[in-house]
Amino acid sequence: MTLQQSAQLLFETADKGKNSYHPHYAKTVDYAKDCKAYFAGVNLDEYLKPFARRESKDLFDQRKAITAHINKAVGAALMRPFQKVPRSNWTKVLAFGSDSDGRRAQQFEREVLAGFYRGGLDRYVFERMLYWSIFDPNAFLVVEFDSTDGRTRAKPYPFEVTADMAVRYKFDKFGTMQYLVSRQAQDVTDTKGHKQNVERLTLYQPLQTVVLQQLTDEQAKALPVQPVQPPKIASITVEPQDGDLVRTSTGSVYRFEIPFPHGYDKCPAFRAGYAENPDDDGKTRVSIFDAAMPFCKKLVKTNSEFDLTAALLAFPVSVRYEERCEQPGCLHGSLADGTKCTTCHGTGYKPRPTSAAEELVLAMPSSPEDMMDVSKVMTYIYPPTDAVKMQADMLQSFVQQAKEAVFNSQMFTKQEVAQTATYHGIELQSIYDTLHPWAKHIGSAWTFVCECCQAFTGFAGDMTAALIFPQDFRFETAEQLFAELKSARDAGAGTVVTDVISSRIIDRMLVDDPEMAAEVRAEMRLDPFAGMSEAAIQEALVSNLVPRWKKVYYANRKDILLALEIANPAFFSLPIARQMALVKEEAEKIMQDIEAEQPAISFNFPGLEPQPNAG
């Protein structure tokens, strides 16, 4: 769009208000509210509904006070598998075309990406994009940057446009975003203490961002007479300049702000959600927990009923004979003058304990025959527990169904029981099927931010930026992998298979120590007998088909690797061919030392020296 067209779009938004918003605006705002309620428990009391036939307002308020919502716990449980993705075996690719040694890529990550968010860009996409994918999938991530004086680089940072702020946007037929209009509302207090809500409209688009800021009534009245205050207009007919004023048909005054062009040839906005909404054929997005929404809605009602039952009905009810009030003049709780008896408080009966912690005390009779059967004076009636058990079962069922709906798996719902490796493999694959599309989405978000940051900070050159996620996230525990390795060996699998499983065991056990993991993997690659059984190794050590230096290396590998690491601390980062060459050199040195230490064999025995010929 031209600057004039951009200004017209903003002016139209300010002038028409909600009538100009995108057609799904109200639905996306309500959906975000629902997601936060059902998956995080935010303002969930508003979603409780009274039983119109038999629940008064007072009883409904009592039920709300008693209810302890559990939707937040269910949402946290659904989130945990997604939180495992950062600890999976993903790969980061960041390179510049002319950067052969990788220094420019390291500088870009250190100076730009590390400051994008606390903990850097990696943490942002794994944490914040997960948050918005759950609670507001129609929000947008916008990359903005602080202005610079030209001597320092711009500092990009994330600006999150929620569904209620994203009032207008457009995608082309290829799914590429053309523009986004963000509306920020703010209460401003004038010099007289009056509050007024004003809005700030920002148009994000390729090359140029444009802002339309509303003035307060006080600011508008303070405008100078010359130039004349802006008249009401129907449209923008000329290209605006920074600071130009316009007045809408309602009389509100706005000021144009034209920042310095950002120069990026794409709209610097990225939609947080990726799952398309079938209700509008994919024009909006739904939460990654959307499949669990029906069950989380059922939880609200069922859990409230369960809490009410447990609080009011699921305890014994006392039934007893009551004694009449003995206050003189008390007749069924009333005195002769018509006032209420102060002893029994109008009940007509003696005051009795009201808590199970209290007790009734009877005077001890002088004779056992005078003792009364107290069960005939007072007893307890226990209500049936069938209803309580049914509600508890329903709650558990809804929680399990919510998890299964999202992950198509029972792994995160079943209790720990003995399960076969085949069962775990099938269940994990179902979970991976859910996680992989989301992982690809945040990988796209990471690439998008990198491209924006490159354009805004002036890092020239062709850049390749990607987060690559495998189909298999490898969530198995070390114990499961050891069992898999044993099964592979028992089945007679080759060394290639066992080496792969062993490498995965190392990755799992040393996930928090990447340097040690690299050392162990290097040692495995250099091991000439890796994956072989002890019997096979012993046979190889005496075989003439194995080079001698390999046998020497195997027997002295700890000392050899330690010596190589001392000589070159970056040894384990070298290419495998170079590592192998250095290992062979060290092994051959040891072979030479062994040969030098062996005594020379002489065949000249004492008394048998050759005698000179006589004559």
What is the fold's blueprint, element by element?
Blueprint: H1 3-16, H2 25-40, H3 57-66, H4 71-83, E1 91-96, H5 103-111, H6 120-135, E2 140-146, E3 155-161, E4 166-171, E5 177-189, E6 195-204, E7 210-214, H7 217-221, E8 245-247, E9 253-257, E10 269-271, E11 275-276, E12 285-286, H8 293-312, E13 317-320, H9 374-377, E14 378-381, H10 386-407, H11 421-457, E15 463-468, H12 478-490, H13 495-509, H14 514-526, H15 534-541, H16 548-567, H17 576-597
Antiparallel strand pairs: 1-15, 2-3, 2-10, 4-5, 5-6, 6-7, 7-9, 8-9, 11-12, 13-14
For the structure shown, list the relevant keywords.
615 residues; alpha+beta; six-stranded antiparallel β-sheet; three-stranded antiparallel β-sheet; 17 helices; 13% strand; flat
Please summarize what this structure is:
By secondary structure, the chain is an alpha+beta fold. The chain is 42% helix and 13% strand. It has helices spanning 3-16, 25-40, 57-66, 71-83, 103-111, 120-135, 217-221, 293-312, 374-377, 386-407, 421-457, 478-490, 495-509, 514-526, 534-541, 548-567, 576-597, and strands at residues 91-96, 140-146, 155-161, 166-171, 177-189, 195-204, 210-214, 245-247, 253-257, 269-271, 275-276, 285-286, 317-320, 378-381, 463-468.
Please, could you describe this protein's structure?
It contains 17 helices and 15 strands. It has 615 residues and is of the alpha+beta class. The strands form 5 sheets. It has a 6-stranded antiparallel β-sheet with strand order 4-5-6-7-9-8, covered by helices on one side. α2 crosses α4, α6 (120-135) crosses α11 and α16 crosses α17 (576-597). The N and C termini lie far apart (122 Å). The relative contact order is 0.10.
